[in-house]
User: Which sequence fits this backbone?
């Protein structure tokens, strides 16, 4: 009964912080060992790419979901130089709501009300997309128009 409540509270905060740092270190180490993808290491060649659909407004649209510990579809094919509107459906949650394509400078935090990122890929090639922590293993395949 001698321990003050505030002391116990700070002890808990300290333990949580240490646990958090430990988990984070393991995640980073895992990413280095496995070459980036923490969750899925499916070979890109084995993934069937989903084509974005170009609308009458000239925007190519695709819906992104989540399943089997990865974004779904895990590979999306778009045309270079045409705006892409990528919408996350309701299966995309948690940290997977923070969506990044680092090589194309794309970053989006999907929220309840804002679930679409629009960008124009200006380089052709295959670019990895993940959550901001590097989880998931998606590919954006940008082809010449
Ligand atoms: Cu994550």
Assistant:
């Amino acid at each position: 009964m001698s321990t003050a409540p505030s002391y116990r509270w700070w002890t808990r905060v300290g333990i949580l912080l240490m646990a958090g740092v430990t988990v984070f270190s393991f995640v980073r180490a895992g990413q280095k060992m496995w070459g980036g993808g923490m969750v899925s290491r499916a070979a890109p060649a084995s993934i069937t790419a989903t084509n974005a659909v170009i609308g009458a407004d000239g925007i190519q649209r695709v819906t992104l979901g989540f399943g089997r510990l990865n974004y779904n579809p895990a590979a999306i094919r778009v045309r270079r130089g045409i705006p892409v509107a990528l919408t996350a459906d309701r299966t995309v949650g948690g940290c997977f709501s923070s969506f990044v394509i680092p090589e194309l400078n794309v970053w989006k935090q999907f929220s309840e009300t804002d679930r679409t990122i629009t960008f124009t890929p200006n380089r052709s090639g295959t670019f990895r997309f993940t959550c901001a922590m590097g989880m998931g293993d998606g590919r954006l395949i940008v082809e010449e128009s």
